[in-house]
Amino acid sequence: MQSPNYLISTRHHHHTDIQSRKTMARIAVIATIFATLLLITAVSAIYDNSKQAKCRKQIKRLKLTHCEQYLIDREMGALLRRQLLMVNQEEEEEEEELKPCCDEMEKLGSKCRCMGLEEIVRQLRERGEMQGEEVEDMEDSARHLPSDCDLEPKTCKF
């Protein structure tokens, strides 16, 4: 016959073995969840990079020269009006200048519009054509340009 101490020891060892299996199972579940999240993040990054590359190609192909010129003219016109204290400008004139830009943005597509407008502002800043408050005003105009053209998204965040 076995001693009572041996039975207690065996029961304790069995209990410890169950606890360690539960702990290992929890670690395995956590590791699986973590690996899945990493995989989702990697696939998402690859998709985003692919989408951005497609947008860059479209932006390069379309050049968005009408939108660039519209933003420059709009800012220069605003500066001139402020200097001459002229508040009213012919809205028809501005709409005529806006239409070719809206056509470019429509060709660009909704997922790439903001990236294209951000690129225009970045290039103008780098070339030094606009500085300080002028750049900020132009950025604001560029952010709202899709709305001015009645396109989606209505505003850009950059």
Tell me about this structure:
The chain is an all-alpha fold and 158 residues long. The chain has helices at 4-62, 65-84, 91-108, 113-127, 133-148. It is elongated, with a radius of gyration of 31 Å.
Classify the helix fraction into a percent range: over 70%
Shape: elongated
Q: Count all strands and give the number.
A: 0
Rg on CA atoms, Å: 31 Å
Count of helical segments? 5
SSE string: HHHHH
Category from helices, strands and their pairing:
mainly alpha
What is the makeup of the main sheet? none
Q: Please report which band the strand proportion falls in: under 5%, 5-15%, 15-25%, 25-35%, 35-45% or over 45%.
A: under 5%
> What does the average pLDDT come to?
81
* Uncertain stretches of 5 or more adjacent residues: none
Distance between the termini: 81 Å
